[in-house]
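Schema walkthrough. Field components (list of strings):
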Amino acid sequence: MKRMNAYDKAILRYCVGAIIATLLTTGIYIVTVNGLFDSAFVVGLVVLLAASVQLVVQLYFFFHITEEKRPRWQLHSMWFSVAMIVVVVVGSIWIMKNLDYNMGMSAEQMHQYMLEENKKGF
Amino acid sequence: MKQTNDEKSQIATLGLWIYLMTDLMLFASLFATFMVLRNNTACGPAAADIFNMPYILIETLVLLFSSLMCGSAFVSAKFGRLRDMRMYLGLTILFGAVFLGMELYEFSQLVGEGHSWSVSAFLSSYFTLVGTHGLHIAVGLLWAGILLVRLLARPSESNSLRKLGLFVVFWHFLELVWIFIFSVVYLIGGTI
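Field assembly_structure (string):
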């Protein structure tokens, strides 16, 4: 077999990345849509895990993040963004879940509560 | 001090990267909004009732293929194979346009069935998140189109590699954001 030249190698690298990404996407799709896991928590965990693996695969094969020269500003700014995203997303979900809990009354009860509050006047 | 082409390219890429990281904040806040509001359906449909999952899977694979073509275009440009590069860039635009068309068709189906953004907080946040991504794709297609026309008109331009490189990073970024929309909105939203 003829040795591959650098051009084919570089194209092949992208193809390998795309094939791994396709397998991950299709695999996690089949697992979730067919309901292989009963618990919502497990489904969420597995889907997020697969998405994170896909993130790493694409950063390596498509973005060539490991080939950046020092000082690695791209990598550093990315870690900072990840920290910010975790604060924004996890923080929002956490706080709003607690708010929902404290607001936990039915529409009927809420209506009654508002009527009583209105009687007290402003 | 005169900058070499390589240094210019590095600085330009870093500039684009910083923009992408701030764009990521925009998407993060829209994701957070969606996660908070996704159960507030106000007696309207829930996520599991309205999404056509096989259609979404095909859409995802179309965008992934477009991303692969875009990477191949960059490799071709790096090795000076301009004909291959133009072909790959053309395919990138073609599959990107197919993706955008599929997304718009999905939106029109939802609105046609009466599930528009004004129905519930869930649908508002859904249309905002997915629509913002679609808008980025539309801008990316415009960018790629202009790039292709320029490369056809002036094929020997020395800084075309740098210009293409910036677009490639942008396009891969949109593909990554879509992976998270696919996972969070469609897979988690549609099955839990």
